[in-house]
Amino acid sequence: MQRFPKFTLPQELTSHGSPTNSAAQPGGELADRVAFALDLAACASEITLRYFRTSEYRVERKSDRSPVTAADKEAEQAVRRMVAERFPLDSILGEEFGSSGGTSEYEWIIDPIDGTKSFISGVPLYSTLVGMTFRGTPTLGVIAIPALGEICLAAKGLGAWYASASVGDQAKPIVLRRTVVSATPSLTDGLFLTSQVDNFERRLAMSAYSELERQAYVTRSWGDGYGYLLVATGRAELMVDPIVNPWDVAAVAPIIEEAGGRFTSWSGELDIRAGHCLASNGLVHQAALSCLRPFSQNKMHDA
Question: Which ranges of 67-150 does DSSP label H, i.e. alpha helix?
Answer without folding.
Answer: 70-86, 116-120
